TrEMBL record:
Species annotation: Hyella patelloides LEGE 07179
Superkingdom of source: Bacteria
InterPro entries: TTHA1013/TTHA0281-like
Protein name, per record: HicB-like antitoxin of toxin-antitoxin system domain-containing protein
Length: 46
């Protein structure tokens, strides 16, 4: 299964957000793109 992550820079919070449409639009933030993706995937497992 391929899972897309839509990565966006949030100027207000000075962090990246990652949203995964295939996981019911789970989203998370991180200081780096990789951290935002990892946090989103971890949140989807819970």
């Amino acid at each position: 299964m391929n899972i897309r992550a839509i990565i966006e820079w949030d100027e207000e919070s000075q962090a990246y957000s990652a949203t995964c449409p295939e996981l019911n639009f789970v989203s998370s933030f991180g200081e780096t793109k990789q951290e935002a993706i990892r946090n989103s995937l971890e949140n989807s497992i819970v």
